[in-house]
Fold:
Amino acid sequence: MLKILLITPNLNIPGGVTEFNKMLLHYSSLKIISFNLWGAGKKQNKVTKFFALILNIFRFTAIVIVSKANIVHLGPSLGSNSIKRDGIMCVIAKFFNKKVYLHWHGWNPDNEFLLEPPKLRFIQKTIFRANHITFLSSHFQSLFISKGYKNSSNVGNTFVDDNLLKDFKLSSNSKSTVNILFLSTISKNKGIYLALDVFSSLADDHNITFTIAGSGPELENIKMQVPKNLQNKIFFLGHVSGAKKVEAFNEADIYIFPSYYEGMPTSVLEAMAFGLPVVCSKVGAIPDFFENSKMGFIHDKNDIEAFKNSIKKLINDEALRNSIGRFNHKFATEYFLASKAVARIDADYKQLLIHGC
Structure:
């Protein structure tokens, strides 16, 4: 019987990886056991990180032995702690003759030094032993192969929960006020300050509002940055999920996402599925699928003038917003629904067990 051991952060902690794993558990037709990492997703000092690593390694070894899983599913990001932890777990899993399926998530270009000597040696001795790696971007895949990875790999995607769209109907209702949505972690690397600057520069001349959904380290600071004359036009929702997330997307007309680095941001896929035009930065896996002008507009990170011009264009052209929205909804529901994407992952699991990829 095919059994998968899924290594995951605590599923109660908000984040892209946990949402991905929850949908994988929900939509998979296979038997998947989740193993929650202790301390993942929380701020820790060096001592706490060290003890968390040791504890997780011992716990992982025990569950590998007793679970009788055929496949171990790891989900690292390009960061020192994640690489170290998942690299060691990969070696342990291989020692116990388990197949290792590795699904890459976050990718910070500033950490690509980890793929250069002398750091690369550790990755080659550990991560490269995985039987199969799914990347979120063709660039990530090519870079790994250029560094000597020889086993099976492909380019996959994150996905949109089908349940979010169960009552959604695409409409083209005319509205006097255009609502711009930012839905993500409220942090510098997600581009929240650029998004606020773009809105502030356009608010005096256009009938627009700005909805900020999410929590994060910059939330209180960004609230203090809101100009007094715009406080009645900017709304903070905090972290949203389920019905509140659906409402946030339904009330929006444009989605802005000026992130500095990404894997494959689920919020962009969700915005598309809800029929929103997207204005985003050219980072991570987004350029692999995003069609400029057809899906919205894609720009170099930090190019505030480009973001401003694209948002302005969409504000002033309702027909353009609607046509892009229709295209995005059709594209996202065809390629990014969780039920379809998880079925592809299930097929990868089966291939891995039968052929070792």
In short: The longest helix spans residues 46-67.
